[in-house]
Design goal:
4-stranded antiparallel sheet, about 35% strand, globular, Immunoglobulin-like, mainly beta
Amino acid sequence: MKPAHVAIVLAAALAAAGPVGAQPLGRAELAPGVTFEVLRLAKLPGHEIVELRFAVANGSEHTVTLERLRIGTSLTVSEVQLVDFANATVYKIGEAGVERLASRYRDGGPLAPGERREFWAWYKAPPAGTTKLAVFVPGVPPVLDVPLSR
């Protein structure tokens, strides 16, 4: 995908984003007091792209990083995967050239105690008819049966 196309699709995705403060679709504990919350999982209209929006909430007494939580590197979200058990397929975060289609370092620096931060990542869309996916972060059980909005 060309950078100009990425910008257009990103603008459309932001416009289609769900309401702020909505209840999470699922949760997983990444570390004691640190939760991963699935906020949105939806196919972008007119594109074969699925967008995952999630938050990390640090309710612990320690500063954490995406790298330590196994969500990504110090530069980008990279390790969160979608699992389609019905079709035996794992989806990794997409790439456009050398760019990973996900939140960057400015979004993912250290997360202080009491802080909550939201992130996004794009994936290839599963086959038509897929209604639920699992969201997997290495080291913890996946968040199962997350509904896929169309």
